[in-house]
Structures are given as C-alpha cells and as structure tokens.
C-alpha cells in the first residue's frame, strides 16, 4: 500500500536565494485613519522572558500569570530626511514630488550622496498626491551594540488623509521620531527582517526530505533526493528539492504583539549584557515571540495588514527577566 504524506518544505518560499539587500523591503501598507508613521525600525539585541497576566479570553490560563519569550529590539530615534508625494498612474504609484531636509547628519553621506538643494516644501502641496511617504534613516552610531556608523535608509508611509499626512510630514522634516510616538504597549504589528544565513546546504536540511537507508539507495546517496522526476516532462522541474542557498531570505511574521516600549535599556538588559550584543542603552521594544534574523540585524516593524479579530484588554506586565544569558 502506498503511503501518503504532505510534501516536505513549502514551495511558497521558492526560489530560495539570497536577499538582494540586508534592509527588508515593505511592499504593502495598511489603511490607517490616524496621522502617524505606519512603521518603525530597530536592531535585534536578543531574547529574554517576561511574566504577564494572560488576557486571551478563550485561553485555559485566562487571568493567570504566564511566562512568554520576548525579543528585545533596541530602537533609537529615526530621523526624517525627505518627503515623497506619490500619485497613481497606469503602472501603479509614481513619484510626483520629492523634497529633502536642508540640514542632514554627516553620517548620512556615507550611505548616499546628499542633495545640495533639498527643494521647496510648498511644491508638495501643488501636486495631486494620493499617498505621502517619508524617507527616514536610523542612527546606529547612538547605540553600542551595533558596530557600525552608516545609517540605514528606508521609506515609511504616513497614515491619515493626504492633507493631514502632508502636514505631519512637513512638521517632522529633519527631526527625530521616537518609537513611543508611533506605537504603544499591546499594539499588533508585522515584523519584517532578513533571516540568519546558513550558506549552501543539501536537500535534507534545506527541504526536510528523509534520508535513505541501504535498502533504498547506494552507499553514496543516502542524503540525496530519491528521484529527480519522471521521464515526461523530460526535464528536472523546479519543484524537486535540491541543494542550494539556505537562509538570508526576507521573511514577514504577521500579528506579533508589542509587550512593552521603554526608554531605559537597563530595565531589560540581562546581567553581563546580551550575548554578542552587549548593553541596551537607548529606547527599546519587547515583542512577543521570536523575530527573524540574527543579533545586530535591522528589523522593520509595520502596522498589521491583516490584524486578528480578537481584541486584547491590554498588557499587564509583571516581571522582566534580567538574569544572565551567558550560560552560567
């Protein structure tokens, strides 16, 4: 009798090749009536655990204290370098007008060539725009856990109607925006990052296929795919699990919950610091569960594009573990 099982490895992630940029790209933004940025960015410091009161009404531990793992993101303020007004065209959105701030940090010139003339802000009001986005950049030189000074540049959409979004963007041009201005405790967000790279791997580790015993394979083919395909079609199809690049892919995790946003990093820094990162000295964000990517990697946070129907009462945080993560 033939055995049946689900195929190993998701084809939805094909082709599994390296990401083109270490800064993840956000291709979809949710609709939001509130005038603010619809996302933020931080650097992954590590993980710890917290004790909260379970507020999931259908949970068997509802109302009780539970322990959950959390990821710590250090989120120094981001700066607004420019404003872009987009309008709809036959081929999607196109840039109608772009204005840059007059005074920008000298560190930004290490990432891109700064414009000599930023432009007139009033030109943004003259175009027929349908969407307002801001060009922001991080400030990794303000934290000690990330050993680099070159900022990461990215775009974020501004929520609300076009006029209010434009007024908000103009008021923030050349200024800093902190994470507490964008999100609060208990917010539901999507997390986008580049996963940890694992190099060139075989089909067993890359796709999860089974290893063959001596009865089904020769002595030199225990960790290979059993068959590359049928005679017809007379070529190897892309669905056949084969060796190749594993890791360093852009991945999005939906509906992650922000447990806490704070300003004093000593509240969450474990004894001896986070392994391979150090001490959190700037503003931080605690996100429930794991986050793609390795330590020190840039992580982008966006408003949830498909939020859950379940509504939470709020986060009742009791305890944040600061015990040593050094394994002793």
Protein model, in words:
- The mean pLDDT is 93.
- The longest helix has 10 residues, at 162-171.
- This protein has helices at 123-126, 162-171, 203-207; strands at residues 39-53, 65-74, 78-89, 92-100, 131-137, 153-157, 176-177, 188-194, 200-201, 244-245, 250-262, 284-288, 298-303, 317-320.
- The protein starts with 38 loop residues before the first strand and ends in an 8-residue tail after the last strand.
- The protein is globular.
- The strands form three sheets. It has a six-stranded antiparallel β-barrel with strand order 1-2-12-11-8-13. Strands 3, 4, 5, 6 and 7 form a five-stranded antiparallel beta sheet that branches.
- The protein is built from three helices and 14 strands.
- It is mostly beta strands.
- Helix content is 6%, strand content 30%.
């Amino acid at each position: 009798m033939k055995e049946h099982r689900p195929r190993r490895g998701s084809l939805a992630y094909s082709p599994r090749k390296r990401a083109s940029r270490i800064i993840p790209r956000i291709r979809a933004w949710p609709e939001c009536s509130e005038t603010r940025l619809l996302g933020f960015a931080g650097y992954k410091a590590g993980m710890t655990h917290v004790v909260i009161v379970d507020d999931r009404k259908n949970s068997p531990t509802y109302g009780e204290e539970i322990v959950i793992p959390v990821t710590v993101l250090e989120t120094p303020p981001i700066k607004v370098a420019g404003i872009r007004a987009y309008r709809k065209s036959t081929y999607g959105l196109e840039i109608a007008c772009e204005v840059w701030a007059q005074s920008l940090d000298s560190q930004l010139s290490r990432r891109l060539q700064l414009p000599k003339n930023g432009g007139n802000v009033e030109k943004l009001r003259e175009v027929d725009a349908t969407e307002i986005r801001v060009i922001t950049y991080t400030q990794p030189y303000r934290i000690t856990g990330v050993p680099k000074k070159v900022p990461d540049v990215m775009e974020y959409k501004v929520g609300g109607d076009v006029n209010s979004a434009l007024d908000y963007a103009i008021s923030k041009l050349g200024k800093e925006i902190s994470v507490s201005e964008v999100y609060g405790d208990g917010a539901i967000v999507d997390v986008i990052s580049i996963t940890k790279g694992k190099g060139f791997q075989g089909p067993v580790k890359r796709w999860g296929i089974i290893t063959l015993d001596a009865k089904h394979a020769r002595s030199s083919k225990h960790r290979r795919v059993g068959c590359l395909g049928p005679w017809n079609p007379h070529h190897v199809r892309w669905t056949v699990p084969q060796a190749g690049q594993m890791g360093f892919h852009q991945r999005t995790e939906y509906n992650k919950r922000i447990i806490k946003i704070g300003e004093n990093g000593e509240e969450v820094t474990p004894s001896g610091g986070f392994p391979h990162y150090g001490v959190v000295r700037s503003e931080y964000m605690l996100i429930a569960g794991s986050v793609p990517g390795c330590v020190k990697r840039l992580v982008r946070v966006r408003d949830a594009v498909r939020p859950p129907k379940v509504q939470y009462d709020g986060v009742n945080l009791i305890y944040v573990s600061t015990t040593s993560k050094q394994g002793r």
